[in-house]
From TrEMBL:
Domain of life: Bacteria
Sequence intervals crossing the membrane: 12-36, 48-68, 88-107
Name of the protein this chain belongs to: DUF5673 domain-containing protein
Keyword entries, A-Z: Membrane, Transmembrane, Transmembrane helix
Organism of this sequence: Fusibacter bizertensis
Length: 182
């Protein structure tokens, strides 16, 4: 087998991994856009296909990349080839993309969305940030929402928060109701 082919295969697998990462990541990000689901729900669900494929394919691709990188490193030592800056940049891009995407999905996996009827316990203003307190949780809202919300009233609320930062969340939806808690 031609030893130079390991270097070429490593370069190809690097590009394949990057394409897999980015297509899965972009597809996943697009699924969070509600207007796509409203426009065509089937298309919305098909956006998960690259993510699901990448979930199973990336570990195999990474093992192949490690194998080819080890073999091409041997090749470089034996033949005295110099690695090009372009190769370093491609590998650096791969590493940074992997780290960024793994961190993003880790943080996303900790995000929880809650909906229901909640009584607004308190309104809090800290500089230019506006919060309401629901169930002893501080939920960030916009200035206009803050002005329309009344303390002690019950609202239909949907909000998201992260397990890593449980004291802060973001308001997704709030609607007034005629419900009164005793």
């Amino acid at each position: 087998m031609n030893r130079k082919s390991f270097t070429q295969k490593r370069k190809i697998i690097t590009k394949v991994i990057l394409i897999t990462f980015y297509s899965a990541f972009i597809g996943y990000l697009l699924t969070s856009l509600q207007w796509i689901a409203d426009w065509n729900y089937n298309f919305h669900e098909m956006l998960y296909i690259p993510y699901n494929i990448a979930y199973f394919l990336v570990p195999f691709e990474l093992v192949l990349w490690i194998y080819y990188a080890a073999r091409s490193k041997q090749e470089i030592k034996e033949n005295g080839f110099k690695t090009k800056i372009k190769d370093y940049l491609m590998n650096l891009t791969l590493l940074i993309s992997l780290i960024f995407i793994v961190i993003y999905f880790y943080i996303q996996s900790m995000t929880i969305t809650i909906g229901g009827l909640f009584e607004v316990e308190q309104k809090i203003q800290e500089r230019n940030n506006y919060y309401i307190e629901l169930n002893r949780q501080k939920i960030r809202c916009t200035h206009s929402e803050y002005n329309l919300i009344e303390e002690g009233k019950v609202y239909l609320v949907t909000f998201s928060w992260n397990k890593k930062w449980p004291d802060k969340g973001t308001l997704d939806l709030i609607e007034p109701t005629e419900v009164i808690f005793d």
